[in-house]
Design a protein that fits this description.
Elements lengths: L1 H14 L3 H8 L35 E6 L2 E5 L5 E6 L2 E5 L7 H11 L4 E5 L5 H4 L2 H7 L23 E4 H7 L17 E3 L3 E6 L2 E7 L9 E5 L4 E9 L14 H14 L11 E6 L5 H23 L4 H7 L3 H7 L8 H17 L1
Parallel strand pairs: 4-5, 5-6, 6-7, 11-12
Antiparallel strand pairs: 1-2, 2-3, 3-4, 8-9, 9-10, 10-11
Helix pairs in contact: 7-8, 8-11
Length: about 350
């Protein structure tokens, strides 16, 4: 028995591992690739192509608890943040118009309560397209004040929408936009200045305007007691910073926005947990995630700035590939905001500043 066992062992070594074991070995990371002729059946020769639509934005709506009274409705093309409380629901962004009905259903997964207030962090259609639908599904706690018989017309029956004054100007066509957004999606209330705050559902809600960042009118929302920040398009975990230079966006303004978020965020332990940050696209994050994103952007900004100072053209900057070590995470080649567009925006803004 002992000799036969040794013979079988030697045969196994000389003849190679069983087919099932070969399959497992061939899929282990870090092993040298095999020629196609030697590759076992069923092992792909190339990695699967990255899907055009991320799985978390494929239209499958899911409501997730973030912290405190704050929830995330994900899957509708852009993250929607919902605060739940005794007064009703406060919604930050409503997603694109195409998924409005599904997002509304996701909001009702959080709680079957009336929507009382909507905050729009920017004028982007992907964040405001469903404003009209969601607003009309809600109810204004002040509706009817100054109604028939009074000097003032009856107030809005649906949930009011709040944004910065710059967002109202852009959506209403006052900033030379090629086309105005539908009237029902416009903000009903706006504010001018760096900060507007109010108490809602027994929690202080701060709206912080960051000029010249993603655009000229963006803000992020901080729920103080829950310690959650809804960052909108001022932060992302799946793309490079989206800087719309045609709508007032700048490199330094975007970095300022990230630094403002970091000034508020506090970790819980070992730089993890604590204040949670919800981007318009991507996963729930903490201070460490935002700091890494800020540092990545700063490094790329400095690289491109050095090339601009040398007088390099955009084509030369692209050929130098200053974003190469981050492209695998943020380039998003099949998305609407690619690494190429990001690099062009950074170059355009830094070149514009250099000329001034």
């Amino acid at each position: 028995m002992r000799r036969s066992g040794i013979v079988l062992l030697l045969l196994g070594v000389l003849g190679g591992a069983p087919a099932a074991q070969q399959d497992r070995l061939s899929t282990q990371p870090g092993l040298p690739s095999q020629p196609d002729s030697a590759r076992p059946q069923g092992i792909p020769t190339k990695p699967a192509a990255r899907p055009a639509i991320p799985v978390y934005e494929d239209g499958t709506i899911e409501a997730l608890h973030v912290a405190g009274n704050v929830y995330l409705v994900a899957g509708g093309g852009a993250n929607v943040v919902v605060q739940d409380g005794r007064t009703g629901l406060l919604v930050v962004n409503t997603g694109p118009a195409a998924t409005g009905t599904a997002v509304l259903g996701g909001i009702q997964q959080v709680a079957k309560k009336p929507i009382r207030l909507i905050l729009s962090t920017s004028a982007d259609e992907e964040l405001t397209g469903a404003n009209d639908l969601v607003s009309n599904a809600g109810a204004n706690v002040n509706a009817g004040i100054g109604g028939a018989g009074g000097r003032e017309p009856a107030r809005l029956q649906g949930a009011p929408i709040i944004a910065t004054e710059a967002v109202l100007h852009r959506m209403s066509g006052l900033k030379n936009e090629p086309a105005r957004e539908p009237f029902g999606t416009w903000p009903h209330l706006s504010f001018y200045g760096p900060l507007s705050s109010r108490t809602f559902n027994d929690e202080v809600v701060e709206m912080r305007h960051v000029p010249a960042a993603h655009t000229d009118g963006d803000m992020f929302v901080w729920f103080r007691t829950s310690d959650v920040i809804a960052a909108g398009n001022l932060y992302s975990t799946i793309t490079y910073p989206v800087i719309d230079v045609n709508k007032g966006g700048t490199v330094q303004g975007y970095l300022n926005a990230l630094n403002d978020i970091l000034d508020i965020a506090v970790p819980k332990f070992n730089n993890q947990g604590g204040t949670l940050v919800v981007p318009a696209h991507g996963r729930i994050s903490n201070e460490s995630d935002v700091a890494e994103y800020r540092d990545m952007f700063t490094i790329i900004r400095d690289r491109v700035q050095a090339m601009v100072d040398k007088g390099m053209t955009l084509a030369q900057v692209r050929a130098a590939r200053p974003t190469l070590d981050y492209d695998g995470i943020y380039a998003n080649p099949k998305g609407t905001w690619t690494g190429e567009k990001f690099l062009e925006a950074v170059y355009t803004d830094l070149t514009r500043n250099r000329k001034k």
